[in-house]
């Protein structure tokens, strides 16, 4: 199986990356990012609101050196938080993220949530388009967009988002949104894919794991990538970081997919994008 997805603009992104939410600045995060890169990860996901871009940047620098690779081999994502929304403030926030990361570009910059003020996310998107058209960022996308947000954004956008990072788990399989995005050639990416561990003790997932001689986390990761969904499981544990990338030596069966698809209950662990404004 290909280990990257190709965007509508021809650029590629690794299917499996490392998430960094809820890990504070500090040595643990530096080591996790470095370990991921040395273990073969080429994609790292952070955000301004995670308050950890400095350590992610340090981990990247140490990882590049230890793995003997170059910056251009990596795919780094960060995101624009809601309180930086607006045209000028988005441009400033991007530069501030680069400064904290110690990078001169990122590979993907996302609107973190649509928020509830439509004009503000339009203005912010225009800023991302400017960064993209000026060659300051390689790709631009969104996160937590529902179909109604896309319908409106696509009316005003001159650059179409390459990706939408959303909650996607066996309990919330987002079929309608994924079908809509496929039609528009927008890639899907899942956040909290392991439901912070909750899904790993589901009996169906555990049985499929046992059958394949794989871990429950590897089953969920494989289910994502076989559904063309990019995935960024978070771990600071070296063995788990390695385990989560070791998913290219087996395949789920049609029956496995059927059983996992039956788990859908349209149940979220995070906020609903329809009315989330960053505070509620
Ligand atoms: N765009 C958004 O709005 C949004 C929202 C939430 C998250 N995200 C992104 O998505 C990433 C992933 O989501 P998440 O961090 O919320 O949670 P997650 O990846 O679903 O789960 C992380 C938890 O699972 C554990 N874990 C990881 N690999 C494991 C394995 N192989 N076996 C057993 N346990 C394992 C980790 O423990 P240890 O670390 O202790 O090993 C951690 O407690 C985030 O880090 C962030 O980058 C984006």
Protein model, in words:
The protein is an alpha/beta fold and 280 residues long. Helix content is 41%, strand content 14%. The protein has helices at 27-38, 53-67, 87-101, 118-133, 147-156, 175-183, 203-212, 216-226, 238-245, 254-261, and strands spanning 4-6, 12-14, 18-19, 43-45, 75-80, 108-111, 140-143, 163-167, 187-191, 229-231. α2 links the parallel β4 (43-45) and β5. The radius of gyration is 18 Å and the shape is globular. The model has no long low-confidence stretch (mean pLDDT 98). NADP nicotinamide-adenine-dinucleotide phosphate binds next to α9. Residues 19-21, 45, 112, 143-144, 165, 191-197, 200, 215, 217, 232-237, 240, 243-244, 270 line the site of NADP nicotinamide-adenine-dinucleotide phosphate.
The proportion of strand residues reads: 5-15%
The residue-averaged pLDDT reads 98
Gross morphology: globular
**If strands are numbered along the chain, what order do they take across the biggest sheet?**
3-4-5-6-7-8-9-10
Organism: Macrococcus hajekii
Domain NADP-dependent oxidoreductase: 15-265
GO molecular function: oxidoreductase activity, acting on the CH-OH group of donors, NAD or NADP as acceptor
Family: Belongs to the aldo/keto reductase family.
Notable features of this structure?
single chain; 280 residues; alpha/beta; TIM Barrel; eight-stranded parallel β-sheet; 10 strands; globular; binds NADP nicotinamide-adenine-dinucleotide phosphate
Briefly say what this structure is.
The protein has 280 residues and is an alpha/beta fold.
């Amino acid at each position: 199986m290909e280990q990257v997805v190709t965007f509508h603009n021809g650029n590629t992104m690794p299917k499996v990356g490392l998430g960094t939410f809820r890990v504070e600045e500090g040595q643990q995060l530096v080591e996790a990012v470095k370990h991921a890169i040395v273990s073969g990860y080429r994609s790292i996901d952070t955000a301004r609101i995670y308050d950890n871009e400095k350590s992610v940047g340090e981990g990247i620098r140490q990882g590049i050196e230890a793995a003997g690779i170059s910056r251009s081999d990596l795919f780094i994502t960060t995101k624009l938080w809601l309180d930086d929304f607006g045209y000028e403030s988005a441009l400033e926030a991007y530069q501030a993220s680069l400064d904290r990361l110690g990078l001169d570009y990122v590979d993907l910059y996302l609107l973190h949530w649509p928020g509830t003020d439509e004009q503000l996310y339009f203005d912010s998107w225009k800023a991302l388009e400017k960064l993209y058209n000026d060659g300051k960022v390689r790709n631009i996308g969104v996160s937590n967009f529902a179909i109604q947000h896309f319908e409106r954004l696509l009316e005003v956008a001159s650059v179409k988002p390459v990706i939408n990072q959303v909650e996607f788990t066996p309990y919330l399989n987002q079929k309608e949104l994924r079908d809509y995005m496929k039609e528009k050639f927008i890639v899907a990416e899942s956040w909290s894919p392991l439901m912070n561990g909750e899904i790993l003790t589901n009996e169906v997932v555990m049985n499929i794991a046992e059958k394949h001689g794989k871990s429950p986390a590897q089953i969920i990761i494989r289910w994502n990538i076989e559904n063309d969904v990019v995935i960024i499981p978070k771990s600071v544990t070296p063995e788990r970081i390695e385990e989560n990338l070791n998913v290219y030596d087996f395949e789920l069966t049609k029956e496995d997919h059927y059983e996992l698809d039956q788990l859908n209950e349209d149940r979220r662990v995070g906020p609903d994008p329809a009315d989330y404004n960053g505070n509620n």
